[in-house]
Amino acid sequence: MRITISGPPGSGKTTACSKLSETLGLEAVVFGKIFRQLAAEKNLTLGELGDIAEKDPSIDKMIDSRILEIAKANENIILESRLSAYMCARNDIPALKIYIDASPEVRMSRIGVREGESVEEACAKTIERQKSEAKRYKMYYDIDIEDRSVYDLVINTDNLDPDQVLAKILEAVGESN
């Protein structure tokens, strides 16, 4: 089973992806790690690399072409990225497409804890990052990242712990088999 997991920063998508991978025994490919590694290799912050990516489409195109390659080559995989659901849908690649969400307050708090920042710092950096991503996805792919019509399941994690999120996903996996 091919599964995509998408959502904004701090929503809990990486945690859900990890738990799902462990439970189902499927490989999980987290594309945010590729972007982070690229930023680190270039000695840039995520925001700085995002600014460069707004002028240089090759960065996003490289990462997104990997999504397609991996999705086409693997029927049993979990793909975690903002665009994986859209890429699969546009290329007629069957997948259970999941969107993990949370309120901005919850997301910023989680990001602050994860990154060792104040909520204010996390908020400023995350808003900048999201604006850059939304701009690039619209510019390069004509994708409105706010359009959730492509998803089979949307989960708000504000009041759910990781095990409850996993249970909702496993229920959807069972229904889609």
Textual characterization of the structure:
With 177 residues, the chain is of the alpha/beta class. It has one domain (2-159): 3-Layer(aba) Sandwich (Rossmann fold), CATH 3.40.50. It contains 8 helices and 5 strands; from the N terminus they run E-H-E-H-H-H-E-H-E-H-H-E-H. Helix 1 (13-24) packs across helix 8, helix 3 (46-55) packs parallel to helix 7 and helix 6 (104-115) crosses helix 7. The chain starts with a strand and ends with a helix. The mean pLDDT is 89.
Q: How many strand segments?
A: 5
Compute the average pLDDT: 89
| SSE arrangement, N to C | EHEHHHEHEHHEH
First-to-last CA distance: 8 Å
Largest sheet: 5 strands, parallel
Instruction: Supply the number of structural domains.
Output: 1
Unreliable spans are none
So what's the overall shape? globular
Annotated CATH homologous superfamily: P-loop containing nucleotide triphosphate hydrolases
Radius of gyration, whole Å: 16 Å
Question: What is the percentage of strand-forming residues?
Answer: 5-15%
